[in-house]
Amino acid sequence: MRNLDFAPLYRATVGFDQIADMMDRVLTNDISQTTYPPYNIEKTAEDAYRISIAVAGFTDADLTVEVKEKALVVSARKAEEETPRTYLHRGIATRAFERRFHLADHVKVTGATHVDGMLHVDLAREVPEALKPRRIEIAKGDTVEAKAIETARA
């Protein structure tokens, strides 16, 4: 009973598409979603974040970091080995993967580094000046009333 139809919500609202899409995405995700590769998300400053992904066994050429439609997509595909190896125990997984992180409004990817088997993707929230809170100066009541009286007489 986890199937909810959000079609009426789309028809009855304007400008709330993102909320409906997010709810739809959350409810349609599989519970058995893969946990490979493991990752951390940390807050490094007031408006800065870092996603660290364990990518042991992958080179820079094997990794791809892209931003598509408000989503950060990290994927990896290991190049085919020229000489196949015979493993007695294989504990380091180098299977292909694609990991998606949905980005909030005004969150931008500022860079990515690959160090010691960890891929670090740095993010920053850059709120435009038009959306930042601003202080409105309050005029004295006498001035506003006097202007209103003058315009009413004219």
Give a written overview of the molecule.
The longest helix has 13 residues, at 141-153. β3 (63-68) and β4 form a beta hairpin. The strands form two sheets. A four-stranded antiparallel beta sheet has the order 1-2-7-6, with no helix packed on it. A three-stranded antiparallel beta sheet has the order 3-4-5, with no helix packed on it. The chain folds into two domains: 1-33, no CATH class; 36-153, Immunoglobulin-like (Sandwich), CATH 2.60.40. The protein is elongated. The chain has 154 residues and is of the alpha+beta class. The protein has helices at residues 7-12, 17-28, 141-153; strands spanning 39-45, 48-54, 63-68, 71-76, 97-102, 107-115, 118-125. It contains three helices and seven strands, in the order ααβββββββα.
Please count the helical segments: 3
Radius of gyration: 25 Å
What string gives the helices and strands in order?
A: HHEEEEEEEH
Binned strand content: 25-35%
Please estimate the helix content. Answer: 10-25%
Poorly predicted regions? none
How much is the average pLDDT? Answer: 81
CATH architecture of the largest domain: Sandwich
Describe the structure in brief.
The protein is α+β, with helices and mostly antiparallel strands and 154 residues long. Helix content is 20%, strand content 32%. The protein has two domains: 1-33, no CATH class; 36-153, Sandwich (Immunoglobulin-like).
Task: List the SSEs and their pairings.
Blueprint: H1 7-12, H2 17-28, E1 39-45, E2 48-54, E3 63-68, E4 71-76, E5 97-102, E6 107-115, E7 118-125, H3 141-153
Antiparallel strand pairs: 1-2, 2-7, 3-4, 4-5, 6-7
